[in-house]
Amino acid sequence: MAWVSDAILAAAVSNAGGLGLIAGMNCNKEQLRQEIAVARALTCNPFGVNIMLMSPYAEEIARLVIEEKIPVITTGAGNPGPFMAAWLEAEIKVIPVIPSVALAKRVARMGAFAVVAEGGESGGHIGDLTTMALAPQVCDGVDIPVIAAGGIGDGRGLAAAMMLGAVAVQMGTRFMVAKECTIHRSYKEKILKASDIDTMVTGRRLGHPVRLLKNAFARDLFAKEYDSSISNEQLEEIAADSLRRAAREGDISGGSLLAGQIAGLVKREQTVAEIIEEVMCEANRRLGLASQFVIRNA
């Protein structure tokens, strides 16, 4: 969650009993070091860092998490293989985000502690499979813990993910409207007002599809992907900096409003602690009711 999951939000999640993650995005070493320092000033609990492996600073960030003794990292948008040996030697728990069983098996062989099986319902960069289809197949395919992500925004989603075999969930869109989340108010309002059909996917032509809320920017980019007179480089230029404009400047027309399909379920701004408490209580209630659906022999 680049430009979204900063040190303030990550610390709030960790303080409330979750595992907060700082988005490494395209930060250089010193920028991310500052974020880590802020998080440590705000929480005594463990937190992690997400490393976007497509970042031009991926190598220095890979070294930084070792220097800073970060206990957990998640990885996405690339192959963590070149860095795994050093991370494992530093006793870092590495949890790659994966869109397929094949990739889950590959990173498990590399020594991953767990994987995040992320379905196409998620906001941001996505794969093809849905969470409902992906999560149980990944659970069957690897012997390490599986964390489900995509289309999960409340306790029902957590309970369902556990029934599919996951041991935990990763949630993004629900926390974008947390009071501790520092994205622009206009961005939050777009999520709070979203319906179930208000997201779309762009970027398929470029090979890295992204789910975002429908707006002028998204529709224009989508149309240009089918215009053969526009090069891939031009498409990349159009998308460049669009998330920052949305998250930091509140440009809800010309910015990239990343959000998952679960956005239509998100209707209230709450503190992080309130969100986690509500999700856990609802999941416990739903799991407690599950026995009524068990068919017993007469």
Features:
single chain, 298 residues, alpha/beta, 7-stranded parallel beta sheet, 3-stranded antiparallel beta sheet, 12 helices, globular
Label the overall shape: globular
Identify the strand order in the major beta sheet.
1-2-3-4-5-7-8
Helical percent range?
Answer: 40-55%
Instruction: Bin the strand percentage.
Output: 5-15%
Which structural class fits the helix and strand makeup? alpha/beta
Span of the ends, CA to CA: 51 Å
Please tell me the overall pLDDT.
93
Total strands: the figure is 10
Taking Cα atoms only, what radius of gyration do you get, to the nearest Å? 19 Å
The number of helical runs is 12
Oligomer: single chain
Q: What can be said about the biggest beta sheet? A: 7 strands, parallel
List low-pLDDT spans: none
Compressed to H and E, one letter per element, the order equals: HEHEHEHEHEEHEHEHEEHHHH
